[in-house]
Design a protein that fits this description.
CATH architecture: Orthogonal Bundle
Organism: Novosphingobium jiangmenense
CATH superfamily: Winged helix-like DNA-binding domain superfamily/Winged helix DNA-binding domain
Radius of gyration: 13 Å
Protein name: MarR family transcriptional regulator
CATH topology: Arc Repressor Mutant, subunit A
Order of helices and strands: HHHHHEE
Strand order of the largest sheet: 1-2
Shape: globular
Length: 104
């Protein structure tokens, strides 16, 4: 990512002022970087690295975003730094470009 997430959040349509009242700061930051990743998506670990917060703080925010219908499990998995495979999360707006997993 070439721009600072904090500076680019306002440029993302789904993080516009109307949504900022319904999303907390970490939800907004998490959604912003997942949105910017487009159809490639991000794991919780990749999301946490991108915004500079611990994964244990970000994973619940991603679950909240999933419950709100803003992100979905893409059906893809990537290895994280510990070697375990992790769910790749994608912004719902990219649903047409990524096949969804059957457990979404």
């Amino acid at each position: 990512m070439t721009t600072s997430t904090c500076n680019s959040i306002g440029n993302i349509p789904h993080i516009a002022e109307a949504n900022s009242e319904r999303m907390g700061r970490l939800q907004s930051l998490s959604y912003a970087v997942i949105y910017e990743a487009a159809h490639e998506g991000l794991t919780a670990h990749e999301t946490s690295l991108a915004i500079g917060f611990d994964r244990t703080s970000i994973l619940p925010r991603i679950s909240e975003l999933r419950r709100k219908g803003l992100v979905f499990a893409s059906g893809k998995r990537r290895r994280n730094s510990s070697g375990k495979t992790a769910i790749v999360w994608v912004a719902r707006i990219y649903a047409d470009t990524v096949p969804q997993s059957p457990t979404c």
